[in-house]
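User: I want to check something. If I give you two sequences, will you return the structure for each one separately, not as a complex?

Assistant: Yes, each is folded on its own. Here is the first sequence with its structure:
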Amino acid sequence: VQLVESGGGLVQPGGSLKLSCTASGSTFSINAMAWYRQIPAKQRELVATITNGGGGTNYADSVKGRFTISRDNAKNTMYLQMNSLKPEDTAVYYCNTDPRYGGSWDWGQGTQVTVSS
């Protein structure tokens, strides 16, 4: 499976962005998925997870109430709507499978989000 993240960019504090993650192959819809983020010299952080059907979601405390994860299995695509962005949200954002279920696909190139005035 190949993962391609997109939608990042430069945004002012308080602004919004919507990230997309598109997966190749036919196994996307049966996997719980997740968004992660990473800043240089730090470990990758789990941001949000979503069940295979999209009915269950979880968020890191740092983004709860501001970010919304969703998915469209017909399009093999997952989304992350990010509102009320803060400078500390600046990172490269990646998607992959939910780590609670073990295993992962090859990591994509990620998409850079920079929150700055």
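And separately, the second sequence with its own structure:
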Amino acid sequence: QVQLQESGPGLVKPSQTLSLTCTVSGGSITTNTYHWAWIRQPPGKGLEWMGAIAYSGRINYNPSLKSRTSISRDTSKNQFTLQLSSVTPEDTAVYYCARDTGSFYLDYWGQGTQVTVSS
């Protein structure tokens, strides 16, 4: 059973960088075909796909967030990370990490972590 767990600060100040880590257990992030994604849901809004890192290390970003987003991984720890720079209160959301089967189907999700941007 694959499990994902997000971790990081729950409160970030405006203009700072939001950093989250997703720790994966029960499966390797380098296993062929899988991609590892970040998704967020602002209050009262729908889910927004932010980007993903493939098993190969290739990264794809949502074009609307690309200039502020960086995704990386640490294969030795089986973790992948999200950094979102220059945050504003509009970046307040529940942030999720998830596994993408490679066909834009997200089959395993973390429980989500609330991040609030406020001074």
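Because they were folded independently, the notes below concern the second chain alone. The chain is about 0% helix and 50% strand. The chain has a mean pLDDT of 96.
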